[in-house]
Amino acid sequence: MLIDTHAHLDVDRFHRDRDEVVKRAQEKGVEKIINVGFDGPSSEMAVKLAEKYDMVYTAVGIHPHDAKKADDDTYELLYNLTKRDKVVALGEMGLDYYRNLSPRELQQEVFKTQISLAKEVDLPIVIHDRDAHGDTLKIIKQERASLVGGVLHCFSGSSEMALECIKMGFYISFAGPVTYPNARRLIKVVEDVPLERMLVETDCPWLSPEPQRGKRNEPAYVQYVAEKIAEIKNMPLEEVIRITTKNAKDVFRLP
Ligand code: NI
């Protein structure tokens, strides 16, 4: 059974058919879904979804795009949400220098504040890093995020960076882009990262893997990511599923 370690089922694009999406995931061999919040309201909604669906667990946090919305009330809300059932991580948090929807200094500050919150409540973190590899590594080290560990989600850095993060106790998660025809660099990372430190995810509704590219993504499609990893690693799919699911259970302390 697979675990989709990064989904956004709380967004509008799932309002109409969320029950069917969750059911389809189950039918396709997905055992659990980690639904990841990106701001206060989305994190609240994520916790509600975990209460509604047995197979859904939650991370609560502020995405770098939404860093400009974070204030003391948001941090208090996150803190309170971490006390609820099935909240297994803080995030997603991090840096996005590709779209720069919040000023970079503010993104850094909000990232750091969430790392210290994660240390306070002893939960692993889910990191978003786009075009900000250097500063992401720097902050992970400076803030001693290795004390809680966690996941580099939808990883897009180099093998060197991946291995450095693994040394600090992190897991590397792969999404749809690893299946794309131009994924040469990412395929190299999959070759270099040990399966024992790898996770699979969809990041749905975005980043649909081949052959579903162009459609709305959903947790059922996480199988395509696992299949691609099995192909790259030249390993049986069952082995990839077994190990990545064990990894997800270890990092998020899932039953
Ligand atoms: Ni995400």
What report would you give on this structure?
The protein is an alpha/beta fold. The chain has a single domain (2-252), classed as Alpha-Beta Barrel (TIM Barrel), CATH 3.20.20.140. It has 9 helices and 8 strands. Strands 1-2-3-4-5-6-7-8 form an 8-stranded parallel sheet. Strand 3 (56-60), helix 3 and strand 4 form a beta-alpha-beta unit. The radius of gyration is 17 Å and the shape is globular. The two termini are 13 Å apart. Residues 6, 8, 36, 92, 203 line the site of nickel (II) ion. The site of nickel (II) ion (NI) has 5 residues, from loops.
* Ligands (ions, cofactors included): nickel (II) ion
Estimate what percentage of residues fall within beta strands: 15-25%
Rg for CA atoms: 17 Å
- Per DSSP, the total helix count is 9
The CATH architecture name reads Alpha-Beta Barrel
Give the ordered list of helices and strands.
EHEHEHEHEHEHEHEHH
CATH topology: TIM Barrel
Major sheet attributes: 8 strands, parallel
Strands across the major sheet, in which order? 1-2-3-4-5-6-7-8
CATH homologous superfamily grouping: Metal-dependent hydrolases
Q: What helical percentage do the residues reach? A: 40-55%
Kindly provide the name of the CATH class: Alpha Beta
Segments where pLDDT lies below 50 for 5+ residues? Answer: none
